[in-house]
Amino acid sequence: MTIVERTWKKLVHLDLKGAPPRVEYLHKLIELFSQLGADGLLVEYEDMFPYEGELKLLQAATHPAYSPEEVLSMQELAKSKGMEVIPLVQTFGHMEFVLKHRPMWSLREVPYCVGTLNPHKEEGVKLVMEMLRQVVKLHPGLNTLHIGADEVYILGEGEESKLWLSSSGRTMEQLFLSHVTKVAKAIKEVWPHMTIIMWDDMMRGMSQETLKASGLVGLVQPMLWDYTPDLDIDNTVSLLEKYHSVGLTHLWAASSFKGSTSVYTCVPSTQRHVDNHLQWLRVAASLSAGIKLQGIAITGWQRYDHLSVLCELMPVALPSLAACLQTLSCGHFSAEAQSEVTGRLGISSVEVEEIGRSPVDNSLFPGKKLAELIVEVNSLLNSDDIRLFENDMFVRGWFSPYQRQRKMVTPLITMQIHNTVKLKTHLPEICPQLFQEMVHLYQDSTVQEWIEEHALPVMAPLQRITEDIRACVKEMVP
C-alpha cells in the first residue's frame, strides 16, 4: 500500500476548448491513459460538444464539434478500459464560450466581462440547465457531474448585483453561494442520483458559519485545486479539514500535468509537475483520521480560458502525465519510478526537452514524433541567435530598414548576412515536417493557430530579411 489509498480515483482532465484532438488520436490517448493507471476522465467539452437547437451556436465556428456518435464512442472506449467519464460544464464563471455570442450578451454580469454569468436572471439558470440536460443525455448512465464555478470574476459589479448587495446583511459570499446552490438544487431535482463536484476557490475565504448556512452541504463535493510545485501543505490541509468540519465530507483534489506554468508555455517541465504531485501526497498523508480524498483530477489545461492562447499540446505533455501518474501510484518518484516511465513510453528521459529525435515511433507514446518536432522547433525559436538576429551588428550596421528601402547596401556583407541566416536556422526545413505531423493529430485550425502563435513571429522577420537581401543584391550585382 502506498501513501495514496487504492480507493483514491485518478482522473485525467481532457480540456477540449483548445487543440481538440482528432477522434482517432483521442482514442489512442484514452488507451494510453488507461495503461498509465488512470481511473477516469474529467472531460471539459466547451465548444466541442454537439449542442443542438437554440444552443447550436455554442459549437466551435473554426472547426467541427465532435458528433454525438464520436462523444459516445469516446465513452464506450473509456468504459471498456474500466474508466469513468465525468463531464465538466461551467455554470457560473469561465463561460466565455457561451457569453461571447451576441444572443447571450444580456446574460453577462457586466458587459465587459465575457466569462461571468449574471446570477439574477432566471434565463441564466435555464441556459445552464439546458446545457447540462444535453450533456447528460449524451452520457448514458452518468452518475457524476462537475459544474465548475471557479474564478467568477467581477461578480457583484453588475447593476442587479449592486442592488441586491445594497440590502442589509447581504454579502458577496452569499451572492456566489445563492447561484451555485440554485444550480445544484435544480440538478438534484432532475437527477436525484447525480453526484455534483465543483471547484473550491470561491469558497476558500468563507467562514465555517457561512459554509454551514450555504445550503451546499449534502449537495456538492468541493475539488480543491493547486498546481504549484511548492504547494502549501499546512494551508491545504487546513482548508480541506475546514470543508470537512462543516459537513462537506466528500473532498477532491486537483493537480496539474500541463497548462499551468504560464499562459503561453509550449513545452512542460516534468519535474515541476511531479513536485506538485509529491506535495499532494504529503497533503493526503497529513489529513486527520477519518478524512480522505475521493480522488484527484490531474488537470491538463489547453487554454487558461476560452479566449487565451494555446498551452502545451498533449504529445509534449505525455511524459509529464506518465510521471505524475507513476508518482501517485508509487508514492514517490525514485530512479526506479522514472525508469518505469521511460521504459513504458520508449524515451530516454522523463523530461520531454531531453528526449531527442528517434527513428522509432513507440506505439505506447502516441504523438511521439510530433512531440520531438515541437521540442526541436521550440528550442530554435527561443534561441538567442534567432530571436536577437535583427540586433546583429551587420544587420543593424549594413542592412537597416532605411538601407533596405533605398537599396543602399554592400553586396558582400549582404550576402554574408544571408549565409548567416541559413546557418543559424533550419526552421524552413523542420516546420513543414511539424505541420504534416500535427495535421494527422489535430484539426487544421489548431495547426494554423500553433504555427501563427509560435513560429511565424520568429520566422516572418527572417523571411523578410531574406527577401530584402534578394531584392537588394539583384539591384547591386550585375
From TrEMBL:
Keywords: Hydrolase. This is beta-N-acetylhexosaminidase. Gene3D superfamilies: Glycosidases (3.20.20.80). Residues 63-207 form the Glycoside hydrolase family 20 catalytic domain. Its EC number is 3.2.1.52. Belongs to the glycosyl hydrolase 20 family. One of its GO terms (biological process) is carbohydrate metabolic process. It catalyses: Hydrolysis of terminal non-reducing N-acetyl-D-hexosamine residues in N-acetyl-beta-D-hexosaminides. SUPFAM superfamilies: (Trans)glycosidases. PANTHER family: BCDNA.GH04120, HEXOSAMINIDASE D. The keyword Hydrolase applies. It is an enzyme of class 3 (hydrolase).
